[in-house]
Amino acid sequence: MSTRRSALLWATSIAVYAFLYIPLAVVVLYSFNDSRLNAEWVGFTLDWYRTLFHDEEMLQAGANSLMIAFVASAVSTLLGTMAGIAMHRFKLRVLPVLVVTPVAMPEILLGVSLLIFFVQVLNLTLGLFSVLIAHITFCVGFVAIVVRARLAGMDESIFEAARDLGATPWQTFRLVTFPLILPGVIAGALMAFTLSIDDFVITFFTAGVGVHTLPLQIYSMIKIAVTPEVNAVSTLLMTLTLGLIILASRLAPDALRSES
Amino acid sequence: MPKRSAERTTRWLVSGPPTLFMLLFFLAPSLIMVLASFRYPGTFGGLAPMFGAGRPGEDTGLTLENYRFFLSDFIYVEIFIKSFAVALLSTLICLLMAYPLALLIARSPKGRRDLMVLLVILPFASNFLIRVYALMILLGPQQALATSLNGALALFGLGRVNLLFSSFAVVVGMVYVHLPFMVLPLYTNLEKHDPALLDAAQDLGANGWQRFWRVTFPLSLPGIFSGSALVFIPVLGMFAIPDLLGGTRDILIGNLIKDQFLGTRDWPFGSMLSIMLTVVVLGFAAIAARLSRRDGAREEA
Questions:
Q1: Model ipTM value
Q2: What is the CATH number of the domain that holds A171?
Q3: Which of B127, B142, B233 sits opposite A37 (nearest CB)?
Q4: DSSP A153
Q5: Rounded Cα–Cα distance for residues B101 and B95 (Å)
Q6: What is the CATH number of the domain that holds B210?
Q7: Do B127 and A237 touch (CB under 8 A)?
């Protein structure tokens, strides 16, 4: 590569990185800014975080989000792990399509079809439960993909050896398969948790009027006006998801890489 | 044969629960939506009752009315065309921004690559709404970007422009939110290229420009196709970005669908629009898969 061309590559790449990071940096910076307007730097303050922790609606939304994320990630990890193992072990036709399609479709389609289904067919009042079901539905696929990727990278002869040594299928699973796929399962669970706590579109259609999650709360706030309280909650959320991603990459670096 | 039947039991135990769950909460709702697109709207919004008799004077049964209505009014077709234009433009801009970056990462020393890729993924750690909100701040009328642009325009005697709440902001938002989806598949592809090919091209007298267009670019087509699908498809269904960054006239398919369900409450028409979107998305996904497989096969040959 000539130096001129490589300089050009570097210049455009740095510009792209700047494009990715400057807006987020501005959000974080203004969350400490002592001014109602996100316009210029006035002085350092923690007031917006204080406002945030006294905002009852926001706290309730945060509690809802956490509860939904915990339950949805637990259930979808169980179902997704089963699906991942089944897709790897058996030649299945239907399950892979059922599990992977929701991952690839625009989210609005799943949201809208679940809305019709809940209201029109199940006669369900929209609320925490409908959001929970919706979140599980789109998270299962992600967990299944991560678990299957983990299994695909493994040496089949380990399982044969276990069988030859007289292990029952259950023993093989408990003593050999499960410990081996565990990092993939944990990575899948963390991914499901992050997806659930971050989801806006599907929640928007399945939550009804009564329940608010954090993204819904943020949406209704920024739809009306831009306030530094949103900067504060954004900064906290970023820190949380960043922590989860670091945790996931520590626990299962390979599982995450094969997913991307 | 006890062993055989044990195998079958395991198979049902493991694949049964996820299959049932997805049949109930993914396939059934999708089929219901197809059905709903052939129904009449109910008197109080939603659908006319699916089963049993409706209220007096309410239309029940199946109809093609929704599809006919869609084709009869050009405004809906126009919104579909506009959505395509936005998706296409966003995909192109993503490609132009992502390609140099992916190429640089692929040609960097091995130890540095993981960090550079991580720096592309990291903004994903923030909620999608937060990223949109960040742009709302940055493009706002009192920010340096808008004031300096309008200052420059004033020098030439031109009027002020609004950056926020415009089609421009919508495209910037789409690009900002989806850019990593383009970088990752491109990088995965470019990283696999054998440097010996470029050396060979150089030995045969190709200059840098020719080496790129004749060797690197054709080989990277599968990466371009899968990256484009990953940007194009979600952009088509997006409603939150036009909602938050666009002006009143920046309505895309996603906004149209959302309004049918939460605004005017014409669910059958909304279902019909969703079906149209699904068909379009499946078509594009099939084309992208086909193109990248064909070029992938050529690459291996």
A1: 0.83
A2: 1.10.3720.10
A3: B142
A4: T
A5: 10
A6: 1.10.3720.10
A7: yes
